[in-house]
Amino acid sequence: EVQLVESGGGLVQVGGSLRLSCAASGFAFDDYNIGWIRQAPGKEREGVSCISTRDGSTDYADSVKGRFTISRDNAKNTVYLQMNSLNPEDTAVYLCVASRFSACVQLNFWGQGTQVTVSS
Hints:
Elements: E1 3-7, E2 10-13, E3 18-25, E4 33-39, E5 46-51, E6 58-60, E7 68-73, E8 78-83, E9 92-99, E10 109-110, E11 114-119
Parallel strand pairs: 2-11
Antiparallel strand pairs: 1-3, 3-8, 4-5, 4-9, 5-6, 7-8, 9-10, 9-11
């Protein structure tokens, strides 16, 4: 069975940092682009970041450029999202996603999500 299990979320002060992890299993991890989306109540779902399986190239939403960094470790079937300089607008449920499409424009698999809350 396909599994994408996120961890690392929590409550953090404005300006703080968190590192999210996503452990994948049940599919060919090396064949998929992996990314993160976020969802906050009453707001549209937002694509946060995506990393290519082909060349390691990355994509970021304008709202997180310069603050977030995505990476993957194929040997561990794990993807990471390092989040720095957090602000209240980053508060959301963050979901790990897997996609056969560039920039994760269409999602094939996704996890249950982990809550990130940034206090004012």
